Amino acid sequence: MSLSCNSPVLIIDSGSDLWLDLGHIPGSVDVTITGQTCAAVTGGSITAAGRCFLQATHHARVSAYDFAHVEAFDTATIDAHGESRIVGTDHADIRADEHAIVFAHCHCHVHAAGYTRIAATDTTTVAIDGDAHVRASAGVLITGDRQSTNLTIVTRPINRLADHLNR
Fold first, then answer.
1. Contact at 8 Å (CB) between 50 and 35?
2. For residue 2, what pLDDT band results from cuts at 50, 70 and 90?
C-alpha cells in the first residue's frame, strides 16, 4: 500500500486477518486505523483506535485511544489514552493517561498520569503524576510527587501486571 495519495485523510478499518505495512506516513496525510486493523508504521504520525494492533518504529508518533494495542520500538513516541495497551522498548517515549496500561523496558521513558498502570523493568524511567500506579524492578528510575504511595518494587513487574490483567 502506498500512502503518497492526494487525500489528506485516510481511515482504515480492516479485519484482523490482513496485515498492513504502512511504511513512513507523509506529514500531509492524516491516517487513522480502527476496528481490528493490524498494521505497522515506520515513521510519521498515526491515530490508533478501537481494538486495533499497531507496531510503531523509527520516530513514529502515535495517538492511541479506546482499546488500541501498540508496540513501540526505536524512539517511537506514543500518547496513550482511554484503555489502550502499550508495550514499549528501545528508547520509546510514552505519555499515558486515563486508564492506559504500559509495559516498558529497555531505556523507555514513561510519563504516567491519570489512573494508568505501568510495569517497568531494565533501565526505564517513569515519572508518576496523578493516581498512576507503577510496578517496577530494581534499576528503574522513578520520579514524581506520588512515588511513595503509588510504587511497588517487585522482581518481575511485567509478568505480575500481565498475570493480574489476565484474571
1. yes
2. very low
